User: Fold this.
Amino acid sequence: MKILTLYAHHNPRSFCHALLEHFDAGLREGGHDNEIVDLHAIGFDPVLRGRDAPNWIDDSVPDDVLRHMNLPESLFEAARGPLQHLRIKRWVGELDPRAIVRKLHARGGPRDVAIQQQKVAAADALAFVAPLYFVGLPAILKGWIERVFTLGFAFKLSPEAWRGDLEGRRPLLRHRKALLMTPTLFDEASYATGLGDAIGRLVDDFALHMPGIEQVQHEYFYAVHGADVRTRLDYLRRAESLGRHFADSIAPVTTHRPALFSPDPGERA
Assistant:
């Protein structure tokens, strides 16, 4: 399989990086191809800015929602100074809001996002190696998801979704699997209090499974800072095994995707 691994830690001497190295070795031993994107090394900008706008609107927006957006006014308000205001005025011209949407979308998003989307599209599966900060992903990785998993690439919206219905979001990704490997500061008992469920809902389900990734596996490496040498070595061996047997746990392709939020709050897709 062709794997794309996103790595998000600032320190190349960290235990997180050691996990990455052992996971990569395991993948290659298992006969897989692995491309590593080190987000800090490439200086990826995680901040969603105005230049990302073409990736977040398309012709699927209903007329009533489009009217509420006040798109021409929003473009003019975003102008920095009279010169940029003049440029936007010329760019908008006599276009109506629907024509502005089409022109904006056709312009395309930033090149750095397009490069990452090409890598995602070329992969059979995804992996993420990063610590957890404040019960979530590091800002640089969360920003990568926000900027790369865009409308028209990772998902599309029905008219109902534009009006707020969560079930109207339609998946576009077709990866067989995503594996998250996250070292933690706190122990397993701490995550059993509800922290793990929160991460499962927001990261595993909403950010990865809902856009279409068939199977999401999350491996925690608990309380790394307080772990003894034996535990750390076991963690590294586990990371290597996860790589070597990456394809073993992939479930058969299904045509039905479970709802994101099930009646039982303890049940995760």
Q: What stands out?
A: The chain has two domains: 2-47+121-244, 51-106. Strands lie at 2-7, 33-38, 125-129, 155-157, 169-171, 177-183, 215-221. The chain is about 45% helix and 15% strand.
